Amino acid sequence: MSDDVHTLVGAYALDALDDLDRARVERHLGRCPSCSREAAELTATAARLADASAAVPPARLRGEVMRAVSRTRQLPPRTRETPIAEAPVVRRWRTRTAVAVAAGILAFGTAAVTYAVQEQRVADAQAEADAVQARTERIATVLAAPDAIAATVPATDGGELLVVRSAALDAAVVTRVGMPALPPDRAYQLWLDVDGRMVSAGLMPDSTALVDIGTATRVALSAEPAGGSPTPTHPVGIVDLG
Amino acid sequence: MSTPDDLLRLVAKGDEGAFERLYDQVAPRVYGLARRVLRDPAQAEEVAQEALVDVWRLAARFDPARASAISWIMTLTHRRAVDRVRSSQSRTERENRVAAGQGEIPFDDVTEETLGRLERQQLRRCLRTLSELQRESIALAFYGGLTYPQVAATLDVALGTVKTRMRDGLIRLRDCLEVRR
User: Fold this and answer.
1) In chain A, which residues have their Cβ closer than 8 Å to the Cβ of B72?
2) Chain B closest-CA separation from residue A172 CA (Å)
3) Which helix (H) or strand (E) holds A87?
4) How far apart are CA B52 and CA B19, in angstroms?
């Protein structure tokens, strides 16, 4: 572990890192068992600081929590077989980034629509434009949802994977930000982790895609041979939806 | 009485009764931490609820080889609280409050039966073994929800110093408290 990342272990245990530093530290911990042990011990030490601040909660909290629990589905245990586990993971979601990135993605959406409309020589240009428009509108709806939250993860081969999701709409907008273009014989493919298995959500030729979350717990992007693969072979990024 | 670790194992299998008993054991710590970090009782209640529902939702992902149940639950709670602190809606109000009371490790008066008196005394004693800079850095991050660059700016010390003090402070605390995981 490099010195720089190693000294961040204390700040990591105290939750004093932003998402990017946290992802950097977690990637290192995944490769360094002794660092991982230190991080676990320091995190447990930090948790003891909560001993100083216990307080009696309002009586109604118990009922509220039990009601919420009775209608909340439990996530299945994490499985570790898929190579996807080695891709960087981010699980801290931000509302403020959602708003900031929404503008950028919307700008992309508008450009795509303009482009489609200009392709008048295609016989079904109007139908295509309508489809693009509908898709753009759905993306915009997710980005504008009051509960929209965003997470980014640095991608293995450069750039970032950005996911904005709305639990209420049960959908997520996935965006490739600054990732390298693939050679013609390769393609980006999206995946959803459903009950511990990576299920293809289709190829991702455009930089932005919309996926329905359903019971998925993670969304991942991989680089595959053109045409896609049955299981991810080269994951570049993964975002935990939990 | 079942320990939080015993109960969490049952919760992972969907046992709502076990969750209720776990709630009774951990809710004061969960709510108290949220309250300490957020200050605002209404927000603390929301965050405590989110964290406790997380405990239910993620119970099957708890790995006893990596942490004790209590430590895992407090870590979840702290993340939730810190996420709330850093989200835009509560940011401005909090910055003013954090600026007001900083550095010292606050001890609340609570029902001693919900939390071992010995544990609290031990924590207090061990915190006294830290240097002032170690203690302030850790307190601003943990109770204030600040990132380490914000801690550095607040204390007017170099970034590298804060990183190091957080780590060596926690190591000293770990050894004094004899924390394993």
Assistant:
1) 47
2) 20
3) none
4) 9
**H or E, element range at A177:** strand A171-177
- Structural domains in chain B, sorted by start: 1-103 (1.10.1740.10), 105-181 (1.10.10.10)
Choose the weakest-confidence range: A3-17, B8-22, B149-163: A3-17
Check B166 against A10: CB less than 8 A apart. Answer: yes
- Chain B CB within 8 Å of residue A133 CB: no
Residue A8 in contact with partner chain B when CB distance is under 8 A: yes
> Which residues in A lie closer than 8 A to residue B15 (C-beta atoms)?
none
Could you say which DSSP state residue A72 is in? -
| A158/A164 Cα distance (integer angstroms) | 19
Residue in chain B lying closest to A18 (CA): B147
Task: Answer yes or no: do A62 and B180 touch at CB < 8 A.
Answer: no
pLDDT at B12 over 70: yes
- Among B57, B67, B75, whose Cβ lies nearest the Cβ of A74? B57
Taking Cα atoms as reference points, which of A144, A152, A141 lies closest to residue A93?
A152
CB A135 within 8 A of CB A210: yes
Residue A181, Cβ density class (10 Å: 0-12 exposed, 13-18 middle, ≥19 buried): exposed
Query: Which chain A residues contact residue B82 at CB under 8 A?
Result: 15
Q: Kindly identify which residue of chain A lies nearest to residue B64, measuring between CA atoms.
A: A40
Task: Report the C-alpha gap between A197 and A207 in whole angstroms.
Answer: 24
In contact, B129 and A75? CB cutoff 8 Å:
no
**What's the pTM?**
0.62
List chain A domain ranges. 5-53, 92-144, 149-240
Q: Quick check: A50 pLDDT over 60?
A: yes
Are the beta carbons of B35 and B41 closer than 8 angstroms? yes
Find, in chain A, the residue whose alpha carbon is nearest to that of B167: A10
Rounded CA-CA distance B33/B77 in Å is: 7
CATH number of the domain located at residue range(s) A149-240 in this protein: 2.60.40
Determine the residue type at A107. A
Question: What is residue A89's DSSP assignment?
Answer: E
Q: What is the ipTM of this complex?
A: 0.89
Partner-chain contact B57 A42, CB within 8 Å: no
